[in-house]
Specification:
- By secondary structure, the chain is an alpha/beta fold.
- The protein folds into 2 domains: about 150 residues, Rossmann fold, CATH 3.40.50.1860; about 110 residues, Rossmann fold.
- The chain is built from 11 helices and 10 strands.
- The strands form 2 sheets. It has a 6-stranded parallel beta sheet with strand order 4-3-1-2-9-10, with helices on both faces. A 4-stranded parallel beta sheet has the order 6-5-7-8, sandwiched between helices.
- Strand 3, helix 3 and strand 4 form a beta-alpha-beta unit.
- Helix 2 packs across helix 3.
- The longest helix is centred in the N-terminal third of the chain and has 17 residues.
- The protein is globular, with a radius of gyration of 18 Å.
Amino acid sequence: MALIGVFDSGVGGLSILDEALRQLPQHSYIYLADSANAPYGEKSSDWIAARSLTLCKHLAGKGCDAIVVACNTATAQAIQQIRSALDIPIIGVEPGIKPASMQSQNNIVGVLATEATLKSDKFNALLATLPKGCQFVKQAGAGLVPLIESGKADSEETLELLANHLEPIQIAGADTLVLGCTHFPFLRKAIRKLLGESITLIDTSDAVVRQLKRQLETIEQTHPSKECGEVLLISSKNADSLLSIAQELMSTDLGLHSVAARMLSEAQ
């Protein structure tokens, strides 16, 4: 079966890994979290592009058959360079503003993402292709990623900060909210507490994994296995912490897989 790399600036991409393990449990995965440098959303475009390419090359060097860049900021700033440099399928992520515009009943959509994603050419080019009649209320979620990284997704501190960020979206009357950072699906409970059940939340994890599945079908030569594959978690900061947060945040029963956690080489 395939070996799939999943790369993110930190723990946010665990939301993608979670969905991948649900849909494609037979494959093996290497999850690489660059938590020592998270969040990427506050760094320069050049730094993000260079760092993302370095880490994806690291995953390719481990023998990955495909890589998911499970970070909206890295996708926006580096996906073209990564695809040019590596001769394997590279799947990116982007805020689900198109499906949000189609699902919104009142044509008011909130977009919660990082500053880098909201300012990126890729995001704004996508925005320009959508119907002019839909109003997008863009909000940078500054400070939320570090709280999620430190295991505080459900804390009062996170709830208070999230409330401040969601206020402009709520005032605008948005009936749909795009979770434009892979960290933010882990705030679903807090968002529901603040905005209630009526607002539609858009998370593209399912679409990303379906795209991964299509890419794998073009390279696989073997029959699907009924066994669960291995999962290796690599962190540039704290491997034990990454494993602990994965066990806390993910809905997948990691006990069904052979799971290991390691530190990223100091050379990276």
